[in-house]
Request: fold
Amino acid sequence: MEINMIKTLAKNIRGFVKESIITPVSMIVEVIMEMLIPLLMASMIDSGVNKGDMKAILYYGGLMGICALIGLITGVLGGVYGAKASSGFARNLRMSLFEKIQTFSFANIDKFSTASLVTRLTTDVTNIQNAYQMILRISFRAPFSLIIAMIMTFSINAKLASIYLIAIIFLGIVFAFLMTSTHKYFKQVFERYDDLNASVQENVTAIRVVKAFVREKHEIKKFDKAVNNLYKLFVKAENRMVSISPIMMITTYACIIAISWFGANMIVGSELTTGELTSLLTYCMNILISLLMVAMIFVMLTMSLASANRVADVFNEEPMIKNPENPEFNISDGSIEFENVSFSYNKSSEKPVLNNINLSIKSGETIGIIGGTGSSKTSLVNLIGRLYDVSSGSVKVGGKDVRSYDIEKLRDEVSVVLQSNVLFSGSILDNLRWGDQNATEEECIKACKLACADDFIQTFPDKYNTHIEQGGSNVSGGQKQRLCIARALLKKPKILILDDSTSAVDTATDARIRKAFKEEIPDTTKLIISQRVSSVEGADRIVVLENGEINSVGTHDELLENCDIYKEIYVAQTSGNGDFDKKGEM
Reply:
């Protein structure tokens, strides 16, 4: 499992392999230089200081200076290249993650949740970046320094060096135990980060609703709960990890005391020189620093392991909707056919969202779709552009199963204006050109006239160059809907789906939009989902959905005569309690 995770993430080191090699090599050279200095110091004390030989002192002092200079240069190189390698690795990870997410179907997104994907792209990748830099630098430096220091101490005196060996084995066991027991807490921590991000995202997105209903205190209380849950888990994890430092310090100081005691006795017995004892104590400090670094590595790797697994989960997730091996690119017309279609968002659901749907739509036909809340109107049209795949049966466009087409080509020909209209930061023209990036300003204006958006755009000081704030927060709901319709029209699709996308405009404007569609794009198949009878009554046929099944299909007049559900909706909306802008209402 961990090996597969490492292989998955390691693919993103591409482009920074050189930096990833230079960094540990520099660290190793730095360690070698540092380990030579105590040995040279011992020689300088024994051969120079104790004997009063100035030449020996200058000779060994010069060698120590050269080693220190080489160590400094390689240390700087390791820092610079380590930063480049880890930052580049993080950049590649984020790009690869984002590209992977773009291949996901709605079902894949639903599985992870938006907040969770945001956490993985930000917090989790940052943890991996920090861990990678530590692996390249400290994870090579600390163990190598520890090994070299142990070799040096054994070369000086094997008996005293055994004290270090016993201490290292003891600390290794302690670290392994703490890492194993703490990993589960860090895994839970990042799941709590998902909840925290979800709370922030929901609050910021719906800030107008929060303020309108004076729910700030409720939102603060909810956020405080999420923060406290995160705090408690961090405390549990840190309480386990914090014990590393005192255990390590006690062990190291015990080593210093033991070496000082036994070393002094050996000097008295002429088994050890003063210079050698000085070197042993210097190596003791090197071992102490190395052990501190190892402890840091354990903490960082424990945290990053949970993040690495979460990121690898996204990479290993298979998109639920894929291109066929030999996709079709030619969509002949905008005809649509549902054959015995059933659909469920969750395969384990007892009851399907759509059940046994059979419907044939001719190219260029205008179809109204109406039904109560939860009747699966949106689910039905989502199957046409393969935003989801059917559970059974088939959906055909242009006489061929949608699963046989190239996904990009299919979605180019099936333009959807979803219920939740989204505009992006940038000018109005920038947003319109999401439909066709090469569209001229004249084409954009024509699409806006069809969508009845040109009138209000002309009232803006900068007209089509007016800046749209993120999410379209500086335009009204009706204006946003009309801009989204114009954007969809610029694709010049064979099929146009309006999913309750005129709900925020008055019925007069709605009628103008439908009239423009009928006159200007007669060959485009139009599916209009609405809660409003006035939006669909002029359609060639109207489909009435009830509980995920087709209740009736017919013209407005036919349904008034034969369909109780449609008649009930019509009467409710025309008896003084329905459409918001009819005379006599309100």
About this structure: The CA atoms of residues 33 and 70 lie 7 Å apart. The radius of gyration is 35 Å. The chain has a mean pLDDT of 80.
